[in-house]
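ARCHIVE CARD
SHELF: 3
SLOT: left
DATA:
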Amino acid sequence: MVEISADALVVGGGLGGVAAALALLRAGRSVVLTEEYDWLGGQLTSQAVPPDEHTWVERFGVTASYRALRDGIRRYYRDHYPLTERARAWGELNPGAGHVSRLCHEPRVAVAVIEAMLAPYRGSGRLRVLQPYRPVAAETDGDRVTAVRLAHRDGGGEITATAAYVLDATETGELLPLAGVEYVTGFESQAETGEPSAPQEAQPLNMQAVSVCFAMDHVDGDHTVDRPASYDFWRSYQPSFWGDKLLSWRCPSPRTLEIVERSFTPNPGDDPRLVEADQRVNPGDANLWTFRRIAARDNFLPGAYESDITLVNWPMIDYLEGPVIDVPDAGRHLAAARELSLSVLYWLQTEAPRHDGGTGYPGLRPRGDVTGGADGLAMAPYIRESRRIRALTTVTEQDLSAAVRGDKGAVSYPDSVGVGMYRIDLHPSTGGDNYIDVACSPFEIPLGALIPRRTVNLLPACKNIGTTHITNGAYRLHPVEWNVGEAAGALAAFCLDHATTPHAVREDERLLADYQHRLTRDGVELRWPDVTGY
C-alpha cells in the first residue's frame, strides 16, 4: 500500500475539482488531485457537454479563473487552428457556433487548457495528479476524515492519501457515504423544503436522467454502426408524458411541456456570426444539429473540416429506467444508458425521418476521436444530480424562483461565496416525472451550503452542496460548479492559514470578512449588479 500526503486532497478532477485545486495552489498549498477518467474537466471534457452559461457571461457573473479558462480556450483556437480571418477577428469567438452557449468547442481543447493551467504546479511538485483513480474507502476519527483509500480504475495497487482537508469533487458525491457524511438524494418532500415543485413525500431514488453524449459529423459514405443489442427495446420505448416514442423528433418542450417537433438539418451552411447563443431569448433547440454544435466548418479555412461536428446531448438520450446512485445495479443502468445512446445513433443513421421524406442519415459518422470514448461515445456519463450534503444552509426553490421572488430578486446571503445564474432546469426523472423548468433570478452561493452540519474537514466541491433536488437544477451548470470548487478550495486554504475551521469562519464576522476579501481579491464576484433573471 502506497501512502501519500498533502495539505489538501481533492477527489474528483471535474470542473469543481480543478477549480478547488487551483485555489489551494494559488494560496501556496500542496494538493493531491484524483480523477477516474483519462481527462480532467468532467462535464466540459470527459462528459463532452459544452458549457451552459448565462446571458451576461462575457461581462460579469463568473469568477476570474473561470474567465481565464474561457479565454484560454479561445486563445488555443487562435494559436493552433486554421481559422478564417473573419473567425480569428471575432472577439467572442464561438468555434462551434452552437446555440446553447457562446463558447461551444471540442472537449480536447478544454483538456489542453486545463492541463496548461495546472502545469506550473505539477512542475513545482506541489500538485500531484492521480489518474485514473477513484475512492473506495475512507477512514474517520469522530467528525474528521483522516484518510482516503484510492484504487486504480484498471486494477493494480491502491494508494492511501492523507490530508488536513478533503474535498469531494466527484460527480456523484462518492466520498459522502464512504466517510459517513450525512446526505440526501432525489426529491425532498414539500413538508421538508416548502418548495412549490416538490412532491408531498420524499423520493430519494427519483433522480434526474443521466445521459451519455456523443459527437458526430455528416460526410459522404455509409457510416452505420452495428445494430445495438437493445435497439428493439429502445425503438419502441415511449414514456407516458413524451407524446411519441423516445426515438423520434417529437418530445415535450421543457418550459411549456407542449409536445413539439424538432428539426434536424446537417451542415445547414448558416453564418456562425449570426447564431444567437443566448438562452434568455432563444433556447436554441429548434434545429438539433446547431443546438450543441462544437465545430462550425465555416469558422475554419476551406477544406479543414469536411463537416460541422455536433454534440448529441438531446432529449432522446436521457436514460429514465433507473438511478445510478445508491442502488445495487448502478453499473447495469450505466451500461444501458450507453446502449440507449448507441441506439439513438443507429436510429439516426437508419430510420430517422428526413425532411425530404426519406429515412435515415447513413452519412452521420460518430466521432469518438473527438470525445475520447472507445465505443464512439463520451468517456463518462453526464451526471446531472449528485448526493448532496446535509448542510448548514439548504438553498430552496423559493430562494431563487422568479415566480416566488418577483422583483425582489434572489435571496442575498451575508456569507455569499459567489454567484450563478441558470433556470431551474430539471430533466425527466427516473420516477416518471416530466421536465421541471422554472425561471430564476440571478442568485448567490451561500457559504453555509458548502459546510456539512457535522464533519469538520470534508468540503463539497461539485454538485454535492446544500441544494435540493429542485435547486440543483440551477446550481449544477459549468460556471457555478467551478465557483463552488474555487470557494471550497479557498476555504480550505484559509482555514489552514488561520488554524480555524469552516464552521468558525461562517460564525465569526471577522473571519468571514477576511475570507470573503480573499475571494474578491482573487476575482470571485459575491454580488450581482442590477439585472433581471429569466
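SLOT: right
DATA:
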Amino acid sequence: MGTCAATMIAAWALVDYVRRTRPKEVDVELSPPDWSITHATAQLSNAAIAVSDRAGRLVCANDHFTKAFAGLKAPPDLIVDDASRDLLVAAGRAAWRDGTAQIDAITKDDRQYSVKVARAGTADEYLLWRLAPIERLDIESRAIEMISGRIGRAMAQSGIMAVAIAEDGRIRAANAAFALRALGTDQEPITGRPFANYMRMDEKGSIFFEREGRRGLPIRLLNVPLTDDRSDGAALLLAVDEEAAKVERGMALAHVEQLLSTLPLGLALVDRDGRFLFANDAFARVLDISVEALPSYPADLVINEDKAAVLDSIRRFGSGAMTSGDIAVRLKERPDEVIALSIAGVRGLGEAAVLLGLKDNSEETKLKRQVAQQTKMESIGQLAGGVAHDFNNILTAIIGYCDLMLMRHQPGDGDYDDIQQIKNNSNRVASLTRQLLAFSRQQTLRPQILQLPDVVADVSNLLKRLLGETVRLEVHHGRALGPVRADPGQLEQVIVNLGLNARDAMDKGGVVHISTKAVSQDDVRAMGSEILPIGDYALLSVEDSGSGIPKENLAKIFEPFFTTKEVGKGTGLGLSTVYGIVKQSGGFIFAESEVGQGTRFDIYLPVHVGEAPSADTGKREFYRPKDLWGSGRILIVEDEDMVRAVAERALVRQGYVVETATDGEEALALFAEGKRYDLVVSDVVMPNMDGPTMARNLRAQFGDIRLLFMSGYAEEQLRETISLDNVSFLPKPFSVQQIAEAVHDAMAME
C-alpha cells in the first residue's frame, strides 16, 4: 500500500502544485489525476487496491482487486456477506469523517481480508482502499514439507517413521523409514493411499504393520493434531519400533524436538514424574511467558485447585496405554480463564512419556476477553441505572416527607434534629445513586465549554488539602489546548477521585502529578490505538508514585464495587464514577500501571468545535428566593404511590389544585372526560403507558399542553428519547422546594 499511496499522493500533489502556480487570470478547468500512473503503481502491491470517489464509484483498481472482487464496483458494494458489507459501510463513513479507518477482517468466499481505508486527494475527494489477504498459516503444508525434507530424512536415519495424514485418512507425505516398513521399499509412491490399509491392531490394542503379519514388531504412534480445533482432523504421526535395539532414543528425541519446535502449535514433552523436558515457543507464548521462565513442573502453571488433576493425568497417560485426552484447567496468571490442556502418552522417545498441547489463541482470547469485559460493563451499567432509578423514587419520598415534617417543626424542637439527620443521610445516599448513574452514563450533566487548565486550577486547592501533608501535588500544563465540552463540577469530581485513589496508593507519601496536553490528529495516528478515534483531544493525566496495580486487577478497576481496600474503606464506586463521567462526556480513559512503579490515568476529551467559552466577568448574583405561590390545575402522573403523594402534598401547599393518575392511560381517560389542566407533571418510565407516549397523545388530541417530566435518568438521554419540544425536566430525587420551583418555572413558560 505504501508504494501505491505514495504515487497517488505524488500525483495529486503535482495537480495541486499546478493549480496553485497557474496564473490567476487564466481560468482553465483542471484535468483529473492520471489514473494510468496510479494503476501502474498499484500493480506493484500484493494487496487489492481500489480508489473510489465521493459518489461511491470505482475510479481505479489494480488487477488483484478486479480478480478477487468481480463486478468492477467500489467498496462497500462488493459481493460479500452482510456482516462484511456492514463493516465496509462503517469503515467508509469513518474514513470520510476521521481520515482513516481499519477493519481486522472481512470474508469473501472462503478467504479473509484485512482492510485499511484512507481519505486522499487534494480536496480529500477520494477514498483509497487496501484489502490485503490474510494468509493463514497452513500447518498441514508445513508438516508435509518437513517430513519430505531434511528433518524427515534425519528421523529415518534414527529409526523414526513419520507420516502426515489428511482429514480423510489418506497419506499426504511419509519419510523413507515409514515407506520401507509399510511397503517393503522406499522407491514406490505411498501418498494418496489410505493410512489404515497399512496398519492392524490386535486384541490387546497393540499396533502392527499389515505387511509384516503376526511376526511383526509392535509400534508406538505419537499423534500430533494439525487441526487446532478438532482431534479427528489432519494429523502428523510419528511411529517408533520400541523393541528395536538399533533406535538411539536420545537421537530420536532430539529430532522430535526439532520437529515440534517448528510447528506453530503449543507443544511440550514431559517425563513420567511430570517434569518438563522440552517446550516450543508457541507453548510458552500461550502462557504469556518465555521458554526460559517455564517452571520445572507443568502443575506449577495452574491454580492450586487444578494441580492434582494435571499431575494425575500426566501419570495416567505416561504409564498406561498410549491414549490421549483433554482436561480443562485455569492458569495461575489468568485464574478467570479456562483453557483446554491436551495430554497424550508417547513411547520410544527416551524419558519423554507425555506430550502436552495448548492452542495458541492469544489474539482470539484477548478479543474474547475484551468483548466479555465490555458486555459485562454494559450489563452492570444497565443494572446500576435500574437500581438507581428505583432507589431515587424511595429517596424522593423520604426527602419529601422530611421536608413536610420540618415545616411543622422549628429548630430546637425535640424532633427537628432527628428529622434533619434523616434528611442528611438520605442526601448522602442520593450521592451514591448519582455515582451509580454516572457509571451507567445516565447521570444528568450540565456541560459547558471550558478549558482543562482552568478546571485543574479551581480544584487544586481542595485537592491539596485532601491529599495531606505527606503527598506533594505537582501540576503542569501544556500549550495550545483546545476547549472541551463537559460538566465542570463532574470533571472536578473526576480529578478528586483520581487524586484520592493516588493518595491511598502511597502509604508513605509521594507525588501526584497532574498534567494537561494538546493531542493532535497526527499524534493519535502515531499512537496506533484501536480504540481512540482520529481527532483532536485535550489530554488530562493524573499520575502517582504509589504501589501500582497488579496486572490481574487492572482490567477490573472500573467495575462498580470492585476495591482492594479494607472493608469499610471505600465503596468501590470512585473509579467507576470516573469511567461513567468520562464516557458520558464523550471522552476516553486509559490506565497504565506497574507494580512498585505507580499508576497513570490518561483522559482524552475531544476538542469542542464551535462557540468559545464565554468570558467570566467575575460578577456573581446572589440567590433570591422565589415567590412560589401559584394557582392553576395540575395533573400528577406517577406510578409510585409514595412519590405521587409527596408531590401532591407539596403542590397543594403552594396553592395549586392537584389531581393524580397512576399511569398514562388513566391520564388520557381524565382528559377524555373533559377535564383540563394547566400543567401535566409526569414520570417517564411507567407500566401500561409511559410518560412520553402519553404526552404525544395528549398534544395530538388536545393541543400544546405544558409538560414537566420527572425522572432519575439523565436529562440529555431523556430529551433524545422523548423528542418533544417545550418540555421541562425535574431530576429525582427532589425536595419539596425543588418541585415547587420546577412547577413555578414550567407554569411561566409561554
